[in-house]
Design goal:
Blueprint (H helix, E strand, L loop, with lengths): L10 H16 L14 H21 L6 H14 L2 H4 L1 H4 L4 H13 L5 H11 L11 H14 L8 H4 L16 H14 L15 H17 L3 H13 L6 H13 L15 H4 L3 H7 L2 H15 L19 H14 L9 H14 L6 H10 L5 H21 L5 H15 L9 H9 L5 H8 L9 H6 L1 H6 L3 H13 L6 H11 L16 H26 L20
Helix pairs in contact: 1-3, 1-16, 2-3, 2-6, 2-16, 6-7, 6-8, 8-10, 10-12, 11-12, 11-13, 12-13, 12-16, 17-18, 17-28, 18-20, 18-28, 20-21, 20-22, 22-23, 26-27, 26-28
Pfam family, one: DUF6895
Protein name: DUF6895 domain-containing protein
């Protein structure tokens, strides 16, 4: 998707907004706290504020008169805000200042100035508590932005003073971000950019290239989770940063278009409201679980078409400065030394992984003692030993042996019998294609025969997007092997410098002990600890070897190809 010219949002995206606003307007009576059940009053006030803010942004971002549905919402909001039972609550609950001040700000943006409402807000803001009690950074930005839109002066620290303390400013690991963290990121961008109307700058701001990269990485994760609310907010953030040439934004639009219901509603994520709030009222539940995500979808379409939202060239992505060579080398040394104490029939994959990684490093001598030891101990092994591990493991082990001119009698016998059996086949299923190609690569099948057996097909690539979407859960459950497997597949698919890959590698590197092993078993038995670390290190060296080979000179700081581009294959 490339919408580089002001106001050129597609008809489809404009229709998203129109349908969403129509659905919200048709249910505007649910915004009235006076008509809500006692346990739903606070929820109604929150929904009123968020709907009001959308209407205020519509007036601010589009100079044209409000469409009928927007106007109907505005009239309802103004009627509710005019009641003393609503506006005077500010004086009685100063901690909830923003819940009401945002409504006033929206009315003001729509030209519906209310001096009495303003006076109450101004008195509360100057009262020594409502504007000064401690807030987390993005909530402080919310306060500053709301007071700005209200036109209320203050002596609080500026946004530039607050931004350095935000999550966005401090390079978070995308894998580790909970939903609440992602909302903190999106709202930081909303307030700092004034919803796309300004560009934060200066040393205390955030790096726009890193921000765009992070937003796109999070879009991959949130789309895989089917979370339309976060997909919508992240898409809004890309638009607020002026980015119009994002493939990931295009996929986000496709997703939102696919999940918007015919009447305009967009369903929110699971758990968005407490089950007891609906009390068996299906109509209320239908509204309560969808109103916020529907607002977000409408906002994305509004930002997309607004002639006032700033457009900028896509910022350069950060350079990839991640060092994997030395950690990988230490891991290979530990693995090659430690695995020799164990049964070679069981731990053949670890030996193969170490040999493969040593070759990737260009230092095959690191595993020569290991390969000599295992080849001797497996000289009389049955074919079943080799068969149990599969051709990928066996092939990597063979490559390591050949690098040093080492032979293993039982392995040679197994490979010859396997090649002879394959020769008798007419064709092989897709899942066997990599094994046939491995046999050809080892010189045990001719390239012509391998092509005939496989129909000339290449090995089916691992689908990176579903795997990438599993990274947060794998991190949360400390499944290092799963994280490593995903990193390996991403690197092999061309995404070695993608933000998600780098963050996953960063997590893995943080699990390395000084000895070179990976993983923190959190147990006391020495044998259990070593077995766990052998398994994790085996998986991790394979992943890091794939990253090291894929990045090559691109990982060198300062190189033109060191950063992750918009065309990354992570989808």
């Amino acid at each position: 998707m490339d919408t580089t010219q002001p106001g050129d949002g597609s008809a489809q995206r404009r229709a998203v907004e129109s349908r969403a606003i129509a659905w919200l307007a048709a249910r505007r009576d649910l915004l009235d706290p006076a008509h809500a059940a006692p346990d739903r009053v606070l929820f109604a006030r929150k929904a009123l504020l968020e709907t009001a803010f959308l209407v205020g942004l519509r007036a601010r971002l589009d100079p044209a008169p409000l469409e009928d549905d927007y106007a109907a919402l505005l009239d309802t909001i103004e009627d509710i805000a005019a009641r003393p039972s609503y506006r005077e609550l500010i004086a009685r609950d100063e901690a909830a200042l923003l819940l009401y001040a945002g409504t006033y700000a929206a009315l003001r943006l729509c030209g519906r100035e209310d001096p009495e409402f303003r006076t109450i807000i101004q008195q509360a803001a100057a009262g020594g508590y409502a504007a000064v009690f401690e807030r987390i950074p993005y909530r402080q930005l919310d306060l500053l932005h709301t007071l700005e839109l209200c036109g209320i002066p203050h002596t609080l620290p500026s946004m530039a003073d607050v931004l350095p303390f935000t999550l966005l400013h401090n390079s978070p690991n995308a894998l580790k971000l909970a939903d609440r963290d992602i909302y903190a990121l999106t709202h930081t961008i909303f307030y700092a950019t004034d919803f796309g109307l300004r560009r934060p700058h200066g040393p205390r701001s955030f790096d726009p290239g890193a921000a765009v990269e992070l937003l796109e990485a999070l879009l991959v994760l949130t789309r895989s989770q089917g979370n339309a609310d976060l997909v919508g907010e992240l898409l809004c953030c890309l638009l607020c940063l002026g980015v119009r040439d994002s493939e990931e934004a295009g996929r986000a639009w496709e997703f939102l278009l696919s999940v918007q219901e015919a009447e305009g509603r967009v369903n929110g994520p699971e758990g968005v409201i407490h089950p007891g709030l609906t009390d068996g009222d299906d109509a209320y539940r239908h509204w309560a679980t969808g109103y916020h995500t529907t607002i977000v979808a409408a906002l994305a379409a509004l930002l997309d078409r607004s002639p006032k939202v700033l457009r900028t060239a896509r910022p350069a992505a950060p350079e990839c400065r991640q060092e994997v060579r030395q950690p990988l080398r230490r891991a290979v040394e530990w693995l090659a030394s430690t695995v020799r104490r164990h049964d070679p029939a069981r731990w053949l994959p670890a030996a193969a992984a170490a040999a493969h990684a040593a070759q990737a490093l260009g230092e095959p001598e690191l595993t020569r003692p290991l390969l000599l030891d295992f080849s001797e101990r497996l000289a009389d092994a049955d074919d079943a030993v080799w068969q149990a591990h599969g051709m990928e493991v066996v092939g990597a082990f063979v490559s390591g042996l050949r690098e040093h001119g080492i032979t293993c009698v039982s392995l040679d016998r197994f490979l010859k019998s396997t090649a002879a059996a394959v020769e008798l086949l007419d064709t092989v299923p897709p899942q066997a294609v990599p094994s046939v190609q491995r046999l050809a690569g080892l010189g045990l099948l001719s390239p012509r025969r391998a092509a005939a057996l496989t129909g000339g097909a290449a090995a089916p690539p691992a689908p990176p997007e579903p795997a990438a979407g599993d990274l947060p859960e794998a991190w949360k459950n400390y499944h290092l092997g799963q994280v490593a497997g995903i990193v390996r597949d991403l690197a092999r698919s061309g995404a070695a410098t993608h933000r998600l890959t780098r963050d996953a590698v960063g997590f893995l590197l943080a699990q390395q002990s000084p000895c070179g092993a990976f993983g923190r078993p959190a147990c006391d038995d020495p044998e259990d600890r070593e077995r766990a670390m052998l398994s994790w290190t085996q998986s991790t060296v394979t992943a890091l070897a794939a990253v090291h080979m894929a990045r090559g000179p691109a990982a060198t700081p300062g190189s033109a190809s060191a950063s992750s581009g918009a065309g990354s294959p992570v989808r």
